[in-house]
Structures are given as structure tokens and as C-alpha cells.
Amino acid sequence: MKRLGLMIVILSAAIALLAACGAAYPADLGSADNAVAFISSDSVAAIEAGTAYGNIITKLGATRDEGLEGNHTAVYLVDGSSFLYLSFNRLTDKCPQSGEELLEGLQSALGIRGEVTEIEESGDGIRMLVEEDPQADMLMKAYVRVDSATAVVGKDEEPASPDDIRVGNIVEVVFDGAVAESYPLQGRALRVKIVE
């Protein structure tokens, strides 16, 4: 009986200690090594103001953290066309905005929309040249790497692959991270939509 009482006291103390420390979140919720998570605007809209960032990220899914020096910025691609950036210091910090307010602050993710004018095999994917207007000399052009980690979809959002991209297709590209500011631009695709 004394042993049971002692175990209850120890268990109660452990629960109180955990409650005092705040919620524990998995270490890999946000990491610079994570891929950017793809989510829907409906999942963002369901977020209530005052929810801890750790709970939001747990609900939306692990994603890339692009924050610097102790500050965190969780990045999500919403509906394949806009970025949601959640910036915070600690996972236990509360988000002051509701999901509807967060949706109002989305940033366009479109890197380039244009015609595929060249394709070459490259590693586990392709490298394509996308030109806004192939007839113009100085409009935006980009060499885009598309590999097995790139989400490729058709015009009705049906899954596709890099092999489905053809010269002459019109595509919309969302870049994955930094783009080399050369001319043409150079970058890796996070998502490619084959528009036509």
C-alpha cells in the first residue's frame, strides 16, 4: 500500500513538472532539413487565434524552418500557389492571428510562368528552360531543375512526373528556396504545374 502511495506521489510530481515546462513537441517539427509542407487553405482557416505555434505546426505537419539565429520561420505552400510564413521564437509562443487572418497575409509563390523551350536529362530528373515570352530577348527566363522531390501536377491538379513535361508546355513554377540571380535565373522547383 505504501509503495502504491509513493508511486502516485511520484507520478503526480512528474505530471506537475511536465505541465510547468509547457508542451513537449517533436524536435523535427521545424528543421532547415525538412521539405516545405504542402497544405490546403481549409487547414489554415481552421486555426484559432491564441493557439501555440507548436500546436499549429503539429496540426499542419512538419515543415522547413527558414529562421535565423534563434528565430523560427515555418514555411508552408498553401494550395500550391501561396506561401504561409509563421515566425516565432518558441513553439510555446501563441499565434495572435486566426487562420482567416493568416490567409489574408499569404504571399504569392509563383516563381515563373512561361513556355518550356528546352529540356535536358539531369540526374534523377530534368533541367528545363522556362521563358515568359520566347519571342522576347530580355524577358524573364529560368533554368529549372525538376527531380523526384518536385511535386509535378497537371492542369486539373492530377499527379504527374518530370517525364510528363514537354517542350512547348506552359508551366507555372514555384522555386524551392534561393534562386541564382544570373540570367537566365537558375533554381530547383518545389512544384511545377503543367498548365497547357
Written description of the protein model:
The chain is of the alpha/beta class. The chain has two domains: 20-108, no CATH class; 112-194, OB fold (Dihydrolipoamide Acetyltransferase, E2P). Helices cover 20% and strands 35% of the residues. The protein has helices spanning 2-21, 41-45, 53-60, 99-104, and strands at residues 30-31, 37-39, 63-65, 72-78, 82-88, 107-108, 112-122, 125-131, 141-146, 151-153, 159-160, 170-175, 185-194. A hairpin with a 5-residue loop joins strand 10 and strand 11 (159-160). The termini are far apart. Residues 13-21 have low confidence and may be disordered.
Number of strands: 13
Order of helices and strands: HEEHHEEEHEEEEEEEE
Helical amount: 10-25%
Low-confidence stretches: 13-21
| Rg (C-alpha, Å) | 22 Å
Instruction: Describe the main β-sheet briefly.
Output: 6 strands, mixed
When the domains are counted, the total is: 2
Report, as a whole number of angstroms, the end-to-end distance: 75 Å
Form type: elongated
Residues in β-strands, percent: 35-45%
Give the overall pLDDT as a whole number.
Answer: 86
Q: Helix tally?
A: 4
Coarse structural class: alpha/beta
Give a summary of the structure in a few sentences:
This protein has 196 residues and is an alpha/beta fold.
Main features:
196 residues, alpha/beta, 2 domains, five-stranded mixed beta barrel, 4 helices, 35% strand
What layout of secondary structure does this protein have?
Blueprint: H1 2-21, E1 30-31, E2 37-39, H2 41-45, H3 53-60, E3 63-65, E4 72-78, E5 82-88, H4 99-104, E6 107-108, E7 112-122, E8 125-131, E9 141-146, E10 151-153, E11 159-160, E12 170-175, E13 185-194
Parallel strand pairs: 1-3, 2-4, 9-13, 10-13
Antiparallel strand pairs: 3-4, 4-5, 5-6, 7-8, 7-12, 8-9, 10-11, 12-13
